[in-house]
Amino acid sequence: MTYTEKERQLPVYADVDVLVLGAGPAGWAAAVSAARQGADTLIIEATSDIGGVATSGLMSHWTGNTFGGIYEEMVDRTVNKYGANPKLDDNEMRKYIDHETMKTRAIEMLEEAGAKILLYTSACDVIMDGDKLKGVIIENKSGRQAVFCKTAIDCTGDGDIAARAGAEYFKGREEDGAMQPMTLMMQVGGVDIDRMEYVYSFEDTYNVPEGDIQQLAGKYIPHPAGHVLVYPSVFPNTVTLNMTNVTGVDGTNADDITKAYIKCRKQIPQIIAFLKEHVPGFENCYVTKTAAQIGVRETRHFKGVKTITHDDILAARVFDDWAVPNVQFNFDVHNITGAGLDKTGSQRTFKQKKAYTIPYGCLVPEKTDGLLLAGRNISGTHMAHSNFRAMPICANIGQAAGVAAAMCAKENIQPRELDVTALQTELKKLGVYPR
Predict the structure, then answer these.
(1) pTM, to two decimals
(2) What pLDDT score does 91 carry?
(3) Most-buried pick from 34, 87, 177, 346 (CB within 10 A)?
């Protein structure tokens, strides 16, 4: 059954140089970077907050070993803590997130750069001229409106606008389309930090009175949850848990996202009961906050002018046409069928410790003009994505995309026409280059 919408005239909300869609770490960085280059920049976000998974998603920390770029500035500008942690020094605590402070300072960074911000707004359709994106249709409390731009950057994570523009993609694993599970993050207070242990990866474990904590979680927490990940928090007597888990869901499907959110919420009491009963230090714990949005790890992988692969990362390749240097993380593949680490993943046991680079072509859709990609939706394989999807890397991808988009707008060219050496020159002025 279908319904035909009545044709109507839409007011034009804005006509800008650079339009950034989505305000997670990639979008936030892209908008700041484009505006600092002098581009008339507008960033659109569907929720109330800048930061995406880093704020609304309640992610515990900036993960990985990536260094340099705007990521370092974002950490410096947003770091905050409330008292000493008996198990971590100040340098280690630097990467853990005070979400409320970050929300405010992210807005400050955008405003200082001169970027315009539009919250509570969804980009719901595209304005095309053949294969060229000219703008988007937005919808919010003011109704439906049009926004035109010289260059758009899709930082929606799922690549919603790139998909609507006809950019080619695949979902999940190449062989079967299966995607990593979703998680609803939560903070838990009332924890005796001296008597508990942090669990930073699936390959970490320790013994509680009844035995191995990871094995006990698999026994007592119902499938598909059943692992333990306990991270520090900037708040006293508080930890962040990455322990809810829903498999077999598609983050581009509204019904699936709803199902996943509800299922995660129902897992929370079971997880807290397990911790109270079986884990020393958690006897008096309670939930203080849950994420405002569920964490979606993987959906669309777009086909770009170039594609980064698993082998590129293992070889620590430094591409001549690099746009994002000094990238380093592991193959963070959460179990696609259950709890814990997928058989293809490697966290603590990841051996490749050298930094690699991401080529500019990974940010450029193969056939769609007027558009750049930034964040986890860039052109990469399923395994490569498990590495570059980390927030610090996404932020630095956003920086490269923002600078590139501003240059394209200024020169009135398409992203695929941009001289990569000229982009590298601009990035080097910002202290961004392979080291």
Answers:
(1) 0.98
(2) 86
(3) 34
